[in-house]
């Protein structure tokens, strides 16, 4: 299933999602690597097998092997970090913030692609996973690297649409099943 097929399986009540999906992917001004790395990492983070199976082949075709692996790595490491740092932030005891994390996350320092691309993908996954601490951290790194707000917003727009499409299609699959 490709992007057009994914749009076709969206129910009528989700017409806005169908239009937004075509827009955020089909009309994006992001360079191909940033776009498809964001799409792939967000498809993974959406936890929707339907969305991942639909978008992964096109992402695979538009990414180098290194970028493909890095996008999957961003989704993987942020799945861990978003839970850890969101929990640390939400706990009322500030002492947790002084403790060593003790979690391996070497891929962030050496992702195998341009650091700004990896940070963009990490930010998009953090948007899906709802970790404000991680969002702030990745946004600051991106801004310091000269990435403009429009590019950053483009990434979390993609994240929001992919997440909504995944939620909708998984709900429909449950209702049908």
TrEMBL record:
Disulfide bond recorded as keyword: yes
Disulfide bonds: 131-134
Domain of life per record: Bacteria
This protein's UniProt keywords: Antioxidant, Disulfide bond, Oxidoreductase, Peroxidase, Redox-active center
Residues in Carboxymuconolactone decarboxylase-like domain copies: 94-172
EC number annotated for this UniProt entry: 1.11.1.28
A molecular function (GO) term: peroxiredoxin activity
GO biological process terms, semicolon-separated: cell redox homeostasis; response to oxidative stress
Active-site residues annotated for this sequence: 131 (proton donor), 134 (cysteine sulfenic acid (-soh) intermediate)
Catalytic activity: N(6)-[(R)-dihydrolipoyl]-L-lysyl-[lipoyl-carrier protein] + a hydroperoxide = N(6)-[(R)-lipoyl]-L-lysyl-[lipoyl-carrier protein] + an alcohol + H2O
EC supergroup of this enzyme: oxidoreductase
Function: Antioxidant protein with alkyl hydroperoxidase activity. Required for the reduction of the AhpC active site cysteine residues and for the regeneration of the AhpC enzyme activity.
Alphabetical list of HAMAP family matching this protein: AhpD
Family: Belongs to the AhpD family.
Assembly and binders: Homotrimer.
Record protein name field: Alkyl hydroperoxide reductase AhpD
Source organism: Streptomyces boncukensis
């Amino acid at each position: 299933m490709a992007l057009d097929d994914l749009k076709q399986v969206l129910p009528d009540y989700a017409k806005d999602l169908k239009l937004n999906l075509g827009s955020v992917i089909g009309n994006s001004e992001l360079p191909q690597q940033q776009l498809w790395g964001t799409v792939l990492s967000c498809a993974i983070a959406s936890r929707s097998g339907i969305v991942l199976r639909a978008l992964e082949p096109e992402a695979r075709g538009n990414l180098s092997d290194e970028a493909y692996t890095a996008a999957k790595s961003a989704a993987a490491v942020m799945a861990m970090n978003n839970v850890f740092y969101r929990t640390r932030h939400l706990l009322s005891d500030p002492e947790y913030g002084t403790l060593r994390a003790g979690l391996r996350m070497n891929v962030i320092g050496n992702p195998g692609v341009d650091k700004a691309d990896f940070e963009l993908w990490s930010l998009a996954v953090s948007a899906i996973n709802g970790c404000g601490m991680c969002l702030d951290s990745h946004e600051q790194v991106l801004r310091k690297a000269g990435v403009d707000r429009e590019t950053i917003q483009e990434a979390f727009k993609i994240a929001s649409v992919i997440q909504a499409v995944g939620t909708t299609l998984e709900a429909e699959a449950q209702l049908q099943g």
